[in-house]
Every structure is written in C-alpha cells, then in structure tokens.
C-alpha cells in the first residue's frame, strides 16, 4: 500500500517507518494513525521484518495530535469514531519488537506514540511533553496511563498538569527512554539496536515482549507465573537447544525461529 503520511523502508530485516508530515511537525491526523496502524500490521506479518523502528524528522518525532483537524470536532464526532482508539490498540497488538527513535519534539500524541513502542532511544535534542491541558483536554492516546507507569506519579502529574517539556537527560534519568545519543547518530544507533534484535530468535523476542508487557497488566504473582510458564515453554523450541548448545560449543547460535 502507498502511504501519504509515512515512508516505509525495509533493509536487513528492519522496517523503518518514518512519520512524514513535515509541514505540521508530523502532527498526527486520522489518516496518519490509520496508515501507521496498517504499516505496523504489514511489518508484523512480513517475514522480511524482524524488528521495527518508528521515527520522525530531526526536528520532530511528532508534535501531537493534529490540532487543526480536532479543533472543531464535537463529542459525538470523536466518541462516535473512537478517535485514535482502534489504531492505537492495533499498534499495541504488534508482536514484533518496535523501537522508537525520537529526535526533537515528542509531544502529546507524539509522546504517547513513542510510549506505544517497546523502548525509546532519543537524540540529545529530544523534548517530551503532555501539553494537552493547554488545549483544554486530557491526553487521549495513553499518556496519563503509560507516562505514569514509565516515570511514576510525581513526574507524570507534573508533566500533565503544568504541560512542561522534559529534555533528553531528564527523560533518561526518569526511565522514559532507554538511551540518549548525539542527534547526528540517532538512526545509526537505533538501527544498530534493531539489527542486534534481528539476530536473536524471533520467537524468543516475541516471548520477551509478551512477558514484559504482561507486567503492566497483572499482579506480581500472576506475572511471575506467566513468565515461568513461558520460560518452561521455550524448552519446546529448537532455538533453546541451539542457543544453549552454541554457548557450550563457544560459537554463535544459528536461530531458525522454531
Ligand atoms: N497540530 C497541528 N499542527 C501543528 C501541531 C499540532 N499538534 N504542532 C505543530 N503544528 C504546525 C504549526 O501549526 C505550524 O504550522 P503553520 O506553519 O502552518 O502555522 C507548524 O506545525 C510548525 O509549528 P510552529 O510554527 O508552532 O513551530 P515552533 O518551532 O514555533 O513550535 C512546538 C514547535 C512547540 C512543537 C509547537 O508547534 C507546539 O506547541 N505544537 C503543539 C503541541 C501540542 O500541543 N501537542 C498536543 C496536541 S493534542 C494531543 O496530542 C491529544 C492526544 O493526546 C491524542
């Protein structure tokens, strides 16, 4: 499918999905969200893809939901269409690992989109924020929930109530991002991380993602039981035999996703 708001490139088993609305700092309109959910699902189903990198431009990952598009909408419009609901859920169902490579602004829906990914690598010029309160709304794509889980109540409340931005250093300190890199190296570092993931068993990577995500949905006891059962289940795979044999034989494993 040809996209108008995205550029998708697949190389070395990595799908790079680039948000591409430079005229609006990659503001997220309904078309972009629908195209993104489609591109993510396509990458998830594509055997040539083992990891996905979601990125924007040097200036903006995404400056939030498209305010021009939303400004005149009514409750009936947005509730009736469940604005952002279905597409965000579709992205959260992708089973392959997704890295967000964030430079510049990741605000409102942009910050929420980054948090929908499995981890965030950001450039040293990144700025995160949930400034929806300035527009008379609350976050609508997971910000009050995911930011709180990522950085804790104190910072999440501060960000959502004051609308202030968090710079890259604070984002790393708070646990919102996994690494900060110089802006000029952002894609190189994100792709290096992605390629590392492509070298693992895709089956095991999927299980890792499923198990970490389960920790947000359940009690500790149930989460630990889920993890242990998954760990036990991995012993039914050829990749477990190969991974452990390769360690003992002091060679690189050749995973076959079985
Ligand atoms: N929606 C629509 N257009 C946007 C936009 C947005 N979220 N953010 C930026 N743009 C547009 C601007 O209107 C401008 O377009 P024009 O040239 O046609 O006027 C263009 O992008 C460049 O933006 P600025 O001139 O404002 O650039 P700047 O460098 O001076 O400021 C900024 C950058 C601080 C990011 C500023 O653009 C800004 O504050 N943007 C809005 C951020 C925001 O409030 N995001 C939350 C949206 S609500 C939301 O996301 C709800 C949700 O949870 C789902």
TrEMBL record:
InterPro entries: ClpP/crotonase-like_dom_sf, Enoyl-CoA_hyd/isom_CS, Enoyl-CoA_hydra/iso, Enoyl-CoA_hydra_C
Keywords recorded for this protein, A-Z: Fatty acid metabolism, Isomerase, Lipid metabolism, Lyase
Record keyword Cell cycle present: no
Group of enzyme by EC: lyase
UniProt-listed SUPFAM superfamilies: ClpP/crotonase
Enzyme nomenclature, EC number: 4.2.1.17
Top-rank taxon: Bacteria
One GO BP annotation of this record: fatty acid beta-oxidation
Alphabetized PANTHER family for the sequence: ENOYL-COA HYDRATASE, MITOCHONDRIAL, ENOYL-COA HYDRATASE-RELATED
NCBIfam families: PRK05862.1 (NF004517)
Protein name: enoyl-CoA hydratase
Species this protein is from: Rhodobacter ferrooxidans
Lineage, top ranks: Bacteria, Pseudomonadati, Pseudomonadota, Alphaproteobacteria, Rhodobacterales
